[in-house]
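Hi P.,

Sorry for the delay on this. The queue was packed all week, but I finally got your sequence through. Input first:
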Amino acid sequence: MKNCEYQQIDPQALSTPTPPAAAPGSEKTSLQRPRRKWEVFPGKNRFYCDGRIIVARQSGVLPLTLGLIFVTSGLFFIFDCPFLVRNLTSCIPAIGGVLFFFVVISLLQTSFTDPGILPRATPDEAADIERQIDSSGSSTYRPPPRTKEVVINNQVVKLKYCFTCKMFRPPRTSHCSMCDNCVERFDHHCPWVGNCVGKRNYRFFYTFIVSLSFLTAFIFGCVITHLTLRMYLLAAAVCTLTL
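Then the structure:
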């Protein structure tokens, strides 16, 4: 097997873009307002509402998910609910509305919540890790090992090194290639919600799946009931006319 050659990148030697010259009146304003963390975020996420909403860059399927939910529920409320209210009970649209509300709210919470992104190592921290690994003092660069053993609750746990985030990942943490971030308790990247599913939004994702299953089963049962009642009423009307 051929040996792979690595070249060390000094984080402190990276060139930083020179900020444009500010106007005399804006110098005081720039000193008063420091840049927030989400404004210099290195991942592939998008932020809205002053960083309170975070979504993946490739979130084009999320509008399709919302459209399918709204169109299906809208057709149910327009065509099925009036007939079922006249012939069965008025509780049907109330139950459907509650399920629809839970589905939409849990979907938005899953899509717009931080899934558990771990901050990347700063240039000083990354350089310190490299210095600890290269304890021989040689000038040649040796890549960090892919695993590191630590003791957690009297058990030896192996931590994997992330070459992108320049840190050892905690247990059950993986790097998402779509968002380019290390996510704690990473489950998967769901394109239907437009976000990763991890530690901080897993309960919202679970609520979305459960409520959507109940809503789908409820609408399907109501549609079958609607068709059955129509056929029964039509047959009863035909029998009445023949008599």
